[in-house]
Amino acid sequence: MSLFGTQNSSFSLPFGSTAAHNPMKDFEVQSPPEDSVSCMKFSPAALPTNFLVGASWDNTVRCWEIQAQGNQVHTVLRAQQSHQGPVLGVAWSEDGTKIFSASCDKTAKMWDLNTNQFVQVAQHDAPIRTIHTIKAPNYTCVMTGSWDKTLKFWDLRSANPMMTIQLPERVYCADVVYPMAVVGLAGRGIIIYQLQNQPQEFKKIEPPLKYQHRCISIFNDMKKNEPTGFALGSIEGRVAIQYVQATNPKDNFTFKCHRSNGTSSSVQDIFSVNDIAFHPAHGTLATVGSDGRFSFWIKMQAVFRL
């Protein structure tokens, strides 16, 4: 079986709300997962059709085709696969023919969309939290980060990892933009890896946030089009912008987000930042939080919400 043939400011819908108010003109995905969604990724530009893959705590990986018809958007669930535990991360191959998934069942699997085969490609001793694909001039692999305190790199032609890196703590978040990878650990550790020739540690970063990291996203230098830093989100409703080699101390800064006024002027509701994404052309960033909001920001020495 073969599967092939925004611009907003801030928006929220209270949990449990049945209101039809929809100023952002959002479209609900049909046949959604039956439990919380842990990760979503759009298909790469190599594909002529847009697909969305989603991982869920209901143990499934789902793939939808996104169809635009005039001012309307329709979604069609093309296929789904199942792990033996919640699925925490997904990644596309560069050509868009394969989807990789990481699960609490301690395995990572590869879903070939042309044949619909779903096979194991990685194994850890604890749940796998993150999964990314790496395409370097001299190697291609899948990187998995686990709660067993290891980072493993897998050549899909072998059942054994081509490299295993022991870590001081569990992997909580990670991102890859060749030739750089950034890994966030339990205990707020941050390690940057360079991926040229072979993966190796580049430097450890002093954590810029006081509370546990939840998500991390690499951003590019817009002129050179190469990775130059990352944004880090925490459980404390705060984001840090961190350059790998900051030319000015003011280049690194933090800002508050996903907070609201509580029952009194002295109390504030604070929510975790669950994900961060950068626009590939303009460098603006979006944050999504446990308050049910998504916000768009301009990354400067000071941050202004759009």
Automatic annotation (TrEMBL):
WD repeat extents: 80-121, 142-164
Sorted UniProt keywords: Repeat, WD repeat
SUPFAM superfamilies xrefs: WD40 repeat-like
Organism: Priapulus caudatus
Gene name of this polypeptide: LOC106818073
InterPro entries: WD40/YVTN_repeat-like_dom_sf, WD40_PAC1, WD40_repeat_CS, WD40_repeat_dom_sf, WD40_rpt
Taxonomy, superkingdom: Eukaryota
Name of this chain's protein: mRNA export factor-like
